[in-house]
């Protein structure tokens, strides 16, 4: 465990001392405490904290106002919220903090126990490791001309990486989602969010879609040679369905590169919709008629409605991370998740949970009957070669456990 500085903000002296003792007992943690939010804002100004653990209900400046003040500071520590307030109030407070750009590591309902603190510190360790390289690479969107982008696409700097989807039945990687990455010569490997807005501005989404489809089919061919049949999902912004020939073009491209439509699934994203709703339904029907799979992306967040889910010929539903994160602790999220999974299974859909980061979330999803999981707990998106190596490794491990100990196969 590396060294971290933690500030505990709690107005009740007994609670404050109790929390401080638990944090101080962990190796590598230095703890300061404070009973007053206005004073805590000052402390955060003068000292660089990695984590602030704050109560919400406090006299004078309350926890919400404290978070708002914290967001205005140059260095924003990560947060953990402690409160006896309702779960929905806590969830709302979390969204408020996140929309101000503050990372919320956890929500701890009172009374907080040593196990909660242990889990929170494990998250802190993970998040700090993640943040370290990224903190120097600014989050600012990339600037590039249309020509530069076209070059990066045709030259292969912009390409597909693959995030594994693991079956909760077999415990094996059974599918992948293609996620676009740019191996930028100056800025390193860029996540989708850094340059997708540019791709959109320059009207290059159709070109990107074709490019990712081609890369996915090529990756599948490589994995097939290794002996694996891995269906791949590809993100499709629904407004592209306004072009009525799109399903025909996608089929032609797939076949031209030796791909199999049944092993490709288009994820209809939340980000856009067609001008005429009929184009959306026509496109969805025709993609299915060509033999492609069809997934509702990001279900449970934003626009995606239950009506849309039941009236589009989907084969899969992807449950958004907004419903997954914290589902093990939050009864409201847990109920929403149970309902979505029950609905998905009644509709005969493959149910995939996105953004699974903890063992507790995984266990909850398994109990609720989710089919597949995708998230940092299993793996981030990786290049096709690395994905292939992962498949080989998993197969070797599987064979080994099958021979030696038939009951001990990892089912993560
Ligand atoms: P999405 O379709 O919801 O994809 C999942 C995003 O969540 C990916 O980010 C993935 O890296 C990230 N993610 C996966 N597991 C976890 C986890 O456990 N925790 C957290 N916090 N995040 C996780 P990425 O690759 O940056 O993509 C962001 C969005 O950009 C995607 O969201 C998708 O809407 C869009 N996108 C990605 N690739 C493409 C593409 O090829 N074409 C188009 N049109 N859009 C794409
Ligand atoms: Ca997606
Ligand atoms: Ca999502």
Question: For the record, what CATH class of the largest domain applies?
Answer: Alpha Beta
Tell me the span between the first and last alpha carbons: 24 Å
The description of the largest β-sheet is:
8 strands, mixed, barrel
Please give the CATH architecture of the largest domain.
Alpha-Beta Barrel
CATH topology of the largest domain: TIM Barrel
Q: How many beta strands in the DSSP annotation? A: 14
Modified residues (4-aspartylphosphate): 55
Keywords: Phosphoprotein
Protein name: EAL domain-containing protein
Domain Response regulatory: 5-125
Protein described:
The structure is a single chain. The longest helix has 23 residues, at 114-136. Helix 2 packs parallel to helix 3 (63-71). It contains 15 helices and 14 strands. The two termini are 24 Å apart. The chain is globular, with a radius of gyration of 23 Å. It is α/β, with parallel strands linked by helices. The protein has two domains: 4-137, Rossmann fold, CATH 3.40.50.2300; 146-401, Alpha-Beta Barrel (TIM Barrel), CATH 3.20.20.450. Helix 10 links the parallel strand 10 (264-268) and strand 11 (293-299). An eight-stranded mixed β-barrel has the order 6-7-9-10-11-12-13-14, surrounded by five helices. Residues 142-395 form the EAL domain. Keywords: Phosphoprotein.
